[in-house]
Amino acid sequence: MRRIGVDAAAVSEALRGARSVVVCGHVNPDGDAVGSVLGATLALQSLGVEVVPTLADAKAAPVLYAFLPGFPLLQAAEGLEPPEVFLALDVPSLPRLGAAEGLARASSRIVVIDHHPDNGSFGAVNWADPTAAATGQTLWRLLPSLGVKPTPEIARCCYVALMTDTGRFSYGNTDADVFRDAAEMVSAGADPFHTYTATYESQSAAAMRLLGLVLSRVTIANGGLVAYSWVTDGDLDETHGIMAETENLVDVVRTVGGVDAVFLVKCAEGSCRVSLRSKTGTDIGEIARRFGGGGHAAAAGFTAEGSLDDVVGSLLPLLPGGDGE
Ligand code: 5GP
Ligand code: MN
After folding, report:
1. Which residues contact 264 (CB under 8 A, 6 or more apart)?
2. What's the pLDDT at 243?
3. Residue 89 φ then ψ, to 5°
4. Could you give the C-alpha distances from 216 to 21, 213, 230, in angstroms and in order?
5. Choice from 64, 96, 118, 264 to test ligand 1 binding pocket (greatest atom count within 8 A of CB)
6. Which tens digit of pLDDT belongs to each residue from 45-70?
7. β-pairing verdict for 4-5 and 75-76
């Protein structure tokens, strides 16, 4: 079991003793980033620590997760006073902090809690556990040494982190420990029905129209080993949808049978964000890094300048069945 950094006691000590803490997740925050940030905020608040949860990109608030406790506390990083401790959650490197990177650098101490295998240990204190399915799971396991009693609100935040990063308890990272930790969270007050419904069954009509477009475009390539689709800013105008509502759309592309890898391209204002998923063990994190991105072996992403056709044309050859593999 490869763990990066120090032990849980050192992380707990750095957080418990802090006069002020700013907590932040990665840009384009997913359920793990938002759940971990809000869970950590509530946990530190319960210890009497002065804590502010922030967004790495205030223009892209993760409204999908507005149902989570503590969501209204989220603030833009711009204009905040540098804290004594900057707690980065689900963040493998400083640039992934987006607009909050300067605030992190200006703080007295950066503490990192993460589960990305490519975590660069950029903090003064680092607790990165690539064997964990979600950062929210790592945080949950830290609560006893932090001296935090898990409230139903903290449990709900960590549960959403774990549910989303395991693809609703279905991806290859779903093991017995995931179910044991999830069971603990449910015992502490997380409600599986409520959190599932709020996350996956609360789509807007615009999101349904976006889903329809993504489904209608699913393309099978590389001799049947890859499936992909795309969303453009024109689609957002047409459907009145917002980019935040595209977060889980790559999940519908991965429902295609017989493929090794899938991806969803989201193009806006001259650049494209790509969400890559591997179903059969191809390390797509390594492929994402070739484009300046990163992530896990089975779930990764990158952003590239250029058109949709450019991005698809340069990515397909590197994926299973591609001629540049
Ligand atoms: P998603 O496709 O859901 O945006 O991201 C999947 C995984 O890849 C997440 O762990 C996310 O943090 C990571 N990821 C996505 N885009 C990038 C990127 O541009 N750089 C890095 N380092 N990781 C990324
Ligand atoms: Mn994560």
Report:
1. 214, 228, 229, 230, 231, 246, 249, 250, 253, 274, 275
2. 87
3. -120, 130
4. 46, 5, 10
5. 96
6. 999 999 999 999 888 789 999 999 99
7. unpaired
Q: Are 25 and 70 within 8 A, CB to CB?
A: no
Q: 77-110: buried (b, 16+ CB within 10 Å) or exposed (e) per residue?
A: beebeebbbbbbbbbbbbebbbbbbebbeebebb
- 131, amino acid identity: T
Q: How far is the CA of 106 from the centre of ligand 2 (A)?
A: 25
CA angle (96 as vertex; 93, 102 as ends), nearest 5: 90
Nearest Cα residue to atom 3 of ligand 1: 275
Q: What are the backbone dihedrals phi and psi of residue 262, each rounded to the nearest 5 degrees, phi first?
A: -135, 160
28 lines ligand 1 (CB under 6 A): yes
Instruction: Among the bound ligands, name the one nearest to the CA of residue 28.
Output: 1
How far, in Å, CA of 72 to CA of 214, rounded? Answer: 31
Q: How far is the CA of 17 from the centre of ligand 1 (A)?
A: 32
Distance in Å, CA 9 to ligand 2 centroid:
22
State yes or no: pLDDT of 9 exceeds 90: no
Residue 300, number of CB atoms within 10 A of its CB: 25
Cα(289) to centroid(ligand 1), Å: 10
Considering only CA atoms, which of 167, 204, 159 is closest in space to residue 183? 159
Rg for the chain, CA atoms, rounded: 19
- Closest Cα to residue 64, out of 302, 251, 306? 251
Q: How confident is the model at residue 1 (pLDDT cuts 50, 70, 90)?
A: very low
Residue 26 has a CB neighbour count (10 Å cut-off) of: 25
- Is residue 130 a contact partner of residue 115, using CB atoms and an 8 Å limit? yes
Residue identifier of the C-alpha nearest atom 6 of ligand 1 = 300
Q: What span, in angstroms and rounded, lies between the C-alpha atoms of 42 and 48?
A: 10
> Has this prediction a pTM greater than 0.85?
yes
